[in-house]
Write a structure and sequence with these properties.
The protein has 350 residues and is mainly α. It has one domain. It contains 14 helices and no strands. The longest helix is centred in the middle third of the chain and has 29 residues. It is globular, with a radius of gyration of 19 Å. The two termini are 32 Å apart. The C terminus is likely disordered.
Length: 350
């Protein structure tokens, strides 16, 4: 959690110092996700994992920034992102980490960009530069973290060099055989593509919350059980209710720090408690897209309806398409970054 928070702050400040103003949020997202990938492990394995993930994050966040405001293009991009990030999880543990974080990168940049246009770059040059800033700062932080830990003796012990797993071979095999992972990818692509199309056309909080609910239920790492889906819905409602209450009590200037802290908590808890991670993620999203200044009851009621609609769409996609495929409960390692760093990467071709 500390590593992600440092990444958010460092990425934002670096871009802000270079004159990007509110668009520095995009750099903060890229930096924090890059740092999260290299938050555990020794330098020789953590840095390559963070580099690969960071490059993917830059690519997917760039797609999100460039298609924002173009409904059909954004829907097709969302479907592409949903399918590819799901297929990535076939290459566990590194692919699982990359798929989950890349999915968040696209979703966060797109969601913020539609409702707060100034929070992302405009044009391929600024978008690309903001991504590069976040990536470079993130890699520097990963290298510093690993070097310091090795110097003071708190890093994991050095292991004998072993054959690292391929990234592409399991993904290609999943698509070729159209296994359960590929089917999950199609489910996510259809449901999230439809939700993104509605969000881009309407560009309001109602459509955003429907899309957010679909996103948190249909995670890249497998079809949720009904119980898991309900827990994520509960987490969404808890998060938005809490943040609406807090923003009514606290001064407006605390909104952005509150959103960043909630985002950090969501990422840190993503492999430990799905419903808590969703709750903090919903809180961060609610602040970042902007909350109304009054009508607490009306706002909360609207979010409840939106959440139910999103949950119905997600569960329909999960259980009407290939219903005989068994749901997969979350078996994500508690230290996913550490597991990915320990495994390392052979090369991109396998």
């Amino acid at each position: 959690m500390v590593a992600v928070l440092v990444g958010v702050v460092a990425g934002f400040l670096a871009a802000y110092a270079l004159g990007f103003d509110k668009a520095s949020v995009q750099s903060a997202i890229v930096c924090s996700l890059t740092v999260s990938a290299g938050s555990s492990g020794r330098l020789r394995t953590a840095l390559p994992v963070a580099l690969v993930l960071g490059l993917v994050v830059v690519g997917y966040s760039t797609i999100g920034a460039l298609t924002t405001g173009y409904p059909v293009a954004a829907a097709l991009a969302m479907a592409f992102v949903a399918f590819t990030t799901t297929v990535m999880t076939a290459a566990k543990p590194v692919g699982l980490l990359v798929g989950m974080v890349a999915s968040y990168a696209y979703f966060l940049v797109t969601g913020v960009g539609v409702l707060e246009e100034e929070a992302i770059g405009a044009g391929i040059d600024r978008v690309g530069l903001l991504g590069a800033i976040g990536l470079v700062v993130g890699l520097v932080l990963v290298a510093l973290r690993a070097t310091v830990e090795q110097a003071i003796g708190t890093a994991p012990p050095r292991k004998e060099k072993a054959a690292s797993p391929s990234l592409l071979e399991p993904m290609v095999a999943s698509v070729r055989t159209f296994d359960a992972t590929a089917k999950d990818g199609v489910r996510r692509a259809i449901a999230l593509g439809m939700a993104m199309l509605a969000f881009q056309i309407r560009a309001d909080h109602n459509a955003f919350w429907v899309m957010l609910t679909v996103f948190v239920i249909l995670q890249p790492n497998g079809r949720s059980t009904v119980t898991s889906a309900l827990l994520r819905v509960i987490g969404t409602l808890v998060g938005v209710t809490a943040v609406v209450a807090l923003t009514m009590l606290l001064p407006e200037r605390t909104a952005l720090p509150l959103a960043l802290l909630s985002l950090v908590a969501s990422l840190a808890l993503s492999t430990r408690s799905s419903w808590l991670s969703v709750a903090f993620g919903a809180a961060a999203a609610a602040v970042l897209v902007g909350l109304p200044s009054g009508d607490f009851v009306g706002y909360a009621a609207s979010r409840l309806v939106d959440t139910v609609i999103g949950a119905a769409l997600a569960l329909a996609a999960g259980y009407l398409l290939w219903p005989r495929v068994k749901p997969t409960d979350d078996d994500t390692p508690s230290d996913l970054a550490g597991a990915a760093s320990s495994a390392g990467i052979a090369d991109l071709r396998g």
